[in-house]
């Protein structure tokens, strides 16, 4: 005799089915939303960009923007993170291609050259988003917290970079890892880039070469 009669058994469990086409459609929608948000934040700034405007530019409904990414502060965060990774997805720093190449390089000069080139490349994508975030941080507490978080995370990553340089045995003996990290952190900032690239008109390749040369002269023995 069965322990549970057919009369009181619950309905059979439904099988979960994931459609590859539906998954790709969701990813395409997310990409369209982020692309629209990136363009509008860069053109109009954070305050003047509405979720409705992002939805219209992406060709979707407002509710779709919320479902695909989130509200406006989350949109800005995702735009920042994807600009950093250079992909449509958020990629942790340790898994980014240029970080892996920096760590695989054998000399301090090579590591610095790879990283300086990456900073210049990322800056092209990040500049308009950084401007939007800096503007928003003046009046929006959530955006101010996001900016502080990004800066703190960048500082922590620079300490890892300093330790990586230290392991080559090529760093100046009179510099601590914290000092190395602070120098690189200040010079890879959006504000420093804006002075040379935006205000003085330096092309990205000149900016990359300058960073590499300056860091080699300042940091290596």
From TrEMBL:
Every HTH tetR-type domain range: 27-87
Keywords from the named record: DNA-binding, Transcription, Transcription regulation
One term of GO molecular function: transcription cis-regulatory region binding
Residue numbers spanned by region Disordered: 1-24
Matches recorded under SUPFAM superfamilies: Homeodomain-like
PANTHER family (UniProt xref): HTH-TYPE TRANSCRIPTIONAL REGULATOR BETI, HTH-TYPE TRANSCRIPTIONAL REGULATOR RUTR
Protein name: Transcriptional regulator, TetR family
InterPro entries given in the database record: Homeodomain-like_sf, HTH-type_TetR-like_transc_reg, HTH_TetR
Residue ranges flagged as DNA-binding region: 50-69
PROSITE patterns referenced in this protein's UniProt entry, alphabetically: HTH_TETR_2 (PS50977)
